[in-house]
Amino acid sequence: MNDMTPTREERAEKLQGMGCRRKRVEDIRFTQGKGQYVDDIKLPGMLFGDFVRSPYAHARIKYIDKSKALAMKGVIAVLTAEDLKPVKLDWMPTLAGDVQMVLADGKVLFQNQEVAFVIAEDRYIASDACELVEVEYEALEVLVDPFKALAPDAPELREDLRGKTEGAHGKRIHHNHIFNWQVGDKSGTDAAIAKGDVTIKEMISYHRTHPCPLETCQAVASMDKIKGELTLWGTFQAPHVVRTVASLLSGIPEAKIHVIAPDIGGGFGNKVGVYPGYVCAIVGSIVLGKPVKWVEDRMENLTATSFARDYHMTTEISATKEGKVTGLKVHILADHGAFDACADPSKWPAGFANIVTGSYDFPVAHLEVDGVYTNKAPGGVAYRCSFRVTEAAYCIERAMDILAQKLGMDPADLRMKNFIQPQQFPYQSALGWEYDSGDYPTALKKGMETIKYRELRAEQKAKQEAFNRGETREIMGIGVSFFTEIVGAGPSRNCDILGVGMFDSAEIRVHPTGSIIARMGTKSQGQAHETTYAQIIATELGIEADKIMIEEGNTDTAPYGLGTYGSRSTPVAGAATAMAARKIRAKAQMIAAHLLEVSDYDVEWDIDRFRVKGLPEKFKTMTEIAWAAYNNVPQGMEPGLEAVNYYDPPNMTYPFGAYICVMDIDVDTGVAKTRRFYALDDCGTRINPMVIEGQVHGGCTEGFAIAMGQEIRYDEMGNCVTGSLMDFFLPTAVETPHWETDFTVTPSPHHPIGAKGVGESPNVGSVPAFSNAVNDAFAFLNAGHIQMPHDAWRTWEVAERLGLHK
Amino acid sequence: MAKTHVSMTINGQEVEALVEPRTLLIHFLREQMLLTGPHIGCETSHCGACTVDMNDMSVKSCTVFAVQANGAHITTIEGMAAADGTLSALQEGFRMMHGLQCGYCTPGMITRAHRLLIENPDPSEDEIRMGIAGNICRCTGYQNIVKAIQYAAAKINGVPFHEAAE
Amino acid sequence: MIPGRFDYYRPSSAQEAVALLAKLGEDARPLAGGHSLIPVMKTRLAAPEHLIDLGGIADLRGIKVEGDTVVIGAMTTQHDLLNSSVIAEHLPIIPETSALIADPQIRYLGTLGGNVANGDPGNDMPALMMCLDATFTVLGANGERTIKAREFYLGTYYTALETGEIVTSIRIKAMSKATGYAYEKLKRKVGDYATAAAAVVLTVSGGKCTSASIGLTNVAETPLLAEDAAAALVGSALDKAAIDKAVAAAEAITNPAHDARGTPQYRTKMAGVMLRRAIARAMTRAHG
Fold first, then answer.
1. Neighbours of chain C (3+ CB pairs under 8 A)
2. Residue A693 is among the residues annotated as catalytic for this protein
3. CB-count exposure of residue A99 (10 Å: 0-12, 13-18, 19+)
4. Chain B from 9 to 38: CB within 8 A of any A CB
5. The dihedral of CA C39, C42, C43, C45: what is its sign?
6. Which of A218, A237, A460, A525 is catalytic?
7. Which residue in C286, C174, C274, C178 sits closest to C229, CA to CA?
8. Residue A123 at interface with chain C, using a CB cutoff of 8 Å
């Protein structure tokens, strides 16, 4: 040992492992424009497909005339449902147990539904040819109001389900009914609500919106008819699932289907399911023997790919007069559009909405969900939210504020009083979840102290008095949101996608010269997996992260996984990564002992090496062990140094957080300015704080947009009126608030590295903070519950209704 | 109409090609010039993912016909690094400050920031936000993009950079 | 996303441009900055068969002063207007408005001529031109004529331009240094059209308003000149009563569309709020 010997700190630093702000590997290619996204792919002879879409929301198709389109030079084929029937692909199964038309079969059920698929030599000709396909429609009565869907005289949408009183999730009570799902203690809850000292009841709506990643959905299908193999590139958050579905639909064995998800320009749940564009590109390629590319444009993405949310939640809470909650009852009307294409685990038609008890110790609760069909785009997906968690969190956080107002209690104090306490973990919620760990009081206290909450409340009071005196036209709101969410789906005993359990996987191979390649069954769309999985492995195996290559998205090389959404990558594949690494380290220990000529139990792990216990100068680094693995292993041991782990998590994980929003609203214009936004997240062990902060910034920005005006809206004829970026609100850098991030760390006890996942927390936590801030601003004027989204014109209407403009 | 001949300089290289008049510059760059750095994120000229630098202006290349760019000099993200591969200050800043996640808006964003820093070499935070208001990002919430641009401005101006607290 | 086919022409003079427009008829459209026309062509809501690109006509760009009149070439971009010392000195309300139009990229190519000639009620420059009593010089196959901005806007996408005519320049009397001005625009986000916007130019002397001119953007089928509202200010001390009267008169002439920016009632009221705020700001700038 001398001055040249690196210290333990230096050795750990060199690894760039867990906990450090490692700069991203992905950035090197992205900042040079060298990412490879689906539309960058060019193959010889590649054709281009484009859709003819219905202008009507509900209509019968009288006829389709393709002749003029087919006559155009450069047009190769025009597919309609008739062409897909012989291969039984005119309809396809959805992930939610429903079926969905690939191309309109006799009728259309939502505006911009796919009617015909034109395949041409290039995208310009395809676009021209789409104009030449003639379709005659007979308009039918349109249903857009989910509250009218179950009326006796409501128009019948799904003629294909006529007479079917059993759906995938049980009984259907009406031709527009999809499912009824219930959990909890109905009679106990009804009793608690009935005898509560104080009760609130409110219909809390989470409006329809859309994940709108910057890159739209796209695919290139290339059938090699000679080899009988299909290669499919696509914007797939779950490439293995797409491969399995493609095999089931096409009859081609999975081993002969190569699905590759290259770089993806944002997913946010939009790219989980299988869309007609993928199926038509595959069919086109199989029939024509040439590659077929399909790239949708933005309006197609917003109006025809899966929406998110559209949950209407009638919520009742009972409490003692001191403010202790005694019961929670929620009935949700879920608008699924024309087909239930919800991307949920198969046994969960309402996702994990039963997290609606949130961070609070409800002794009894009941949740009931009724899904209905309407003439809108099918879905819905989990827009950065792990299966309806955003809806549930919004519901309970809004309801707690309503309860606080009725009780005359401060909203933060009401929450503090009702928190599940640290000693109650693992906590069995009244709706069936076992929360792994949490320390809610510490987190909320930290937030309140940092933001100087009591001073803000005092300022608010003074401003209210000034407003009442006519001295100011601004009102101030403080929105508190304390969310607990449920991510990391999930244990295969209750979580599966189309029957495949929701485990995930990692395969790690150490090369002789000490660098590593590792593949996981997840698929990043910007979440920095190439950087962060390497950090996990670097810490577990003592090899520098820069020498660890991470690969995802190629189903030939990656072990089977269920993909990336619902913040499941770290909880599930991250666990698999740690477990696979530990298998390797166990083998490495034996090799080290062999090299050091001691017994296996006489060596101990130290950052990047095994050293002899009591003799630290006698060690072998992992790099040395890697070399030995290929040429000097103990007798009877197989050479090589690699491992695979398929990790079936024992439970979900439960990240949580305290978000506080301070907002000033100009009552004369309805414009709200976010003065401050504080976001404290507890995601357990923090792999890369820089990446976590980025996730929080991005998710809070999405939540800001959703709460303040981003919606997918239809008029009464079923026309989507927010179908382009002219009207679908995506904030620029000017509107987007500044985000203050903070954290606590409460590791998950069941996760190998104690990590919980964080990508979705900010969308879950921020929407209630913004919405509660607007509501809180008007509370002193007794406005009642103000529904989202809080566009300026809507907020102005609240002020108008309260007589504030006289 | 028969195809039109166009010639222009792209990333320092003179090119010529035949295009339909209706060929959008973004498609010309991506499909014929094989420069897939600039991306397409919308068709209503809002998102800015297609931004290139044309004749010393930031331009949304989805809203320009290739024929209009005849004789122009154009720089795309592929032309931002030095000839020897050294990344520009902005490219370095975006990595150092975690100013990107999925990477899809990044080429347009960096190309726009490049022109912004020429217009205004020492912009305030508000000026940066106004300056990139024609570029939408869905991943980062812009906060680290602002820091990335501040980092680059400091580097270009030869002054120390102090990263703002969260 | 993909426009229909068209033939493309790039004349080098305004005369050549109008000759082409005359020859090719109604299916020919002039192309200025392209940031109104090309998006509409990409959705195929417009499908001209011929595009006459004005971008190569040097004479259509440039800003000069002729006596007390500023003459702005129609192909002058918003970026040019923002960076012109002539405009900053003589018509400072213009860069204030330009800065609120669209985004940086669009301002590099979007032209004043395009913004005023399109007839789109959402554009900001038309109401400002009416407020400033600008005159458009127009060229057609039959020669040149002038049309006052205040007589130019007839309906949505319907102006006093005859088929084949183009705006070649915009002439505006320079504002005196004592003039108060403001352009106040309410919008949902940068890049959006106005929910409502108001342009105000006024002068004061001895504590009284001696002249006033008000334009309103995107609250009717055309840009509006709020004459009664302006008249309510003239001769007053710009006190609350006068301003209230002006606001009421302005609201009375609005007829806004119902869209994602808000209900007609909201947008009418916002026209009033924008007017009130523009008057207040204009007052801080006026001397006399």
1. A, B
2. no
3. middle
4. 20, 22-23, 27, 30-31, 34-38
5. positive
6. A237
7. C274
8. yes
Q: Look at residue A773 and tell me whether its pLDDT is greater than 60.
A: yes
Mutate which: C45, C100, C186, C269, vs A, most A CBs within 10 A: C269
Inter-chain contact A734–C190, Cβ cutoff 8 Å? yes
ipTM value of the model? 0.98
A661 an active-site residue?
A: no
Backbone angles phi, psi at C6, to 5 degrees: -155, 160
A442 reaches B (C-beta below 8 A): no
- In this complex, which of A24, A33, A734 lies closest to B78 when CB atoms are compared? A33
Residue A159 falls in the annotated catalytic set: no
Which chain A residue's Cα is nearest to B100?
A: A27
pLDDT for C27 beyond 80: yes
| Side-chain-side CA neighbours of residue B109 (13 Å) | 33
CA distance A669 to A793: 7
Catalytic residue among A385, A395, A683, A720: A385
Q: Which of B4, B45, B57 sits opposite C8 (nearest CB)?
A: B4
Q: Do C270 and A669 touch (CB under 8 A)?
A: yes
- Alpha-carbon distance A629 to A637, whole Å? 9
Angle among Cα C161, C142, C77 to the nearest 5 degrees reads 50
CA–CA distances in Å: residue A519 to residues A522, A533, A645:
9, 9, 11
Q: What is the pLDDT of residue A5?
A: 85
pLDDT at A1 exceeding the cut of 70: no
Work out how many CB contacts closer than 8 A connect A with B. 186
Q: Three-class SS of residue A707? A: helix
- Segment A227-253 shows an average pLDDT of 96
Strand partners, C74: none
Specify the pLDDT at position A3.
63
> Cβ–Cβ contacts within 10 Å for residue C242, how many?
18
Order of strands, sheet of C63-66, starting from the edge strand that comes earlier in the sequence: C63-66, C69-73, C166-173, C135-140, C143-148
* Bridge partners of residue C72, in order along the sequence: C63, C170
Residue A676 bears catalytic tag: no
- Max Cα distance, chain A (Å): 91
Q: Say what the pLDDT of residue A712 is.
A: 98
Q: How far is Cα A433 from Cα A352, in angstroms, rounded to an integer?
A: 9
Neighbours of chain B (3+ CB pairs under 8 A): A, C
User: Quick one: pLDDT at residue A43?
Assistant: 98
Task: Please say if the pLDDT value at position B110 is more than 70.
Answer: yes
Q: Could you tell me if C109 lies within 8 Å of chain B, comparing CB atoms? A: yes
Closest CA to A195 of A321, A318, A315, A357: A318
- Determine whether the interchain pair A24/B98 forms a contact, defined as Cβ–Cβ distance below 8 Å: yes
Q: Which pLDDT score, from 0 to 100, does residue B1 have?
A: 61
DSSP state letters, A485-519: --BS---TTT-EETTEE--EEEEEEE-TTS-EEEE
| Amino acid (one-letter) located at A648 | D
Cβ separation C2–A792 shorter than 8 A: no
Are the beta carbons of A24 and B137 separated by less than 8 Å?
no
Neighbours of chain A (3+ CB pairs under 8 A): B, C
| A648-693: pLDDT as tens digits | 999 999 999 999 999 999 999 999 999 999 999 999 999 999 999 9
Convert the pLDDT of each residue in A160-186 to its tens digit: 999 999 999 999 999 999 999 999 999
Q: Any chain C CB within 8 A of the CB of A124?
A: yes
Binary contact (A791, C190; C-beta < 8 A): no
Question: Chain A residues with CB inside 8 Å of B80's CB?
Answer: 32
pLDDT tens for A389-411 read 999 999 999 999 999 999 999 99
| pLDDT value, residue A398 | 98
pLDDT at A4: 75
C-alpha distances in Å from residue A168, one per residue of A180, A183, A465, A562, C112: 11, 17, 56, 21, 60
